[in-house]
Amino acid sequence: MRSTHRSIVIGALGAILVVGGAISAAAATTPQAAPTGVVPSQTTVAPTAPTATTNPTATPTATPTAPPTATPKPTEAPTEQQIKDLFKQWNDALATRDPKKVADRYAPDAVLLPTVSNKVRTDRDGIIDYFTHFLESRPSGTIKESKIKILGPTAAIDTGVYVFTLTKDGVESKVEARYTFVYELRDGKWLIVNHHSSAMPEK
Predict the structure, then answer these.
(1) pLDDT tens-place string over residues 147-197
(2) Interior/surface letters 41-76, b for 16+ CB within 10 angstroms, e for the rest
(3) What share of the chain is helix, strand, coil (3-state, %, to 5)?
(4) Where is the Calcium/calmodulin-dependent protein kinase II association-domain domain (predicted)?
(5) Per CATH, which fold does 80-198 belong to?
(6) Which residues contact 157 (CB under 8 A, 6 or more apart)?
(7) Which of 8, 100, 163, 180 fits a disulfide with 196 by CB distance 3.0 to 4.6 angstroms?
């Protein structure tokens, strides 16, 4: 009888321990409400720094550009043959029958004292006008005598006598004249800056 009573007591005590453990575990996992009158603490958030914005009305800063590189000046003077070849280039321009191509052999500020005109030509338009009429006779020049003077790396003079063969209306004729070409090197190209041509005074 005592054994039975003891077993009952032990069983009841075990049930109490089990129930108590379950209650303790539930209490541990259940969040506890804050006591009345106590304000829960708040986490302080640091203020965010303002983000810089681009001003759409601001004038963009111009990027400086490098100055243009100047064309280096030549240090060596041209040869006489180089200057002689300039007449051939001019004569080849006559063969094109295009007055603009002939005018391309002259500097923009060149002066032309032509063979068969009394008017002095001092600009490109005037030079084109002269050769427009002169090329109608299909001229072809030949150097008879040439004297070349080298003035330096950028200038030279060719003076002498040339003979033009002219053909007009199927008739060929020749005109002998004295000439002076003054050449100047500009931007890497030899151009005529002065051209004087006049028929021989003695027949």
Answers:
(1) 999 999 999 999 999 999 999 888 999 999 999 999 999 999 999 999 999
(2) eeeeeeeeeeeeeeeeeeeeeeeeeeeeeeeeeeee
(3) 30, 30, 40
(4) 80-201
(5) Nuclear Transport Factor 2; Chain: A, (3.10.450)
(6) 148, 149, 151, 180, 181, 182, 183
(7) 180
- CA 150 to each of CA 21, 119, 154, 161: distance values in angstroms, whole numbers, following the listed order: 121, 29, 9, 18
What pLDDT is recorded for position 169?
87
Whether 191 contacts 86, CB under 8 Å: no
The pair of structure tokens assigned to 19 is 């129930």
How many Cα atoms are found within 13 Å in the side-chain-facing hemisphere of 155?
A: 5
Place of tokens 């007009």: 168
Tokens of 8: 């009952």
Neighbours of 105 (CB within 10 A): 23
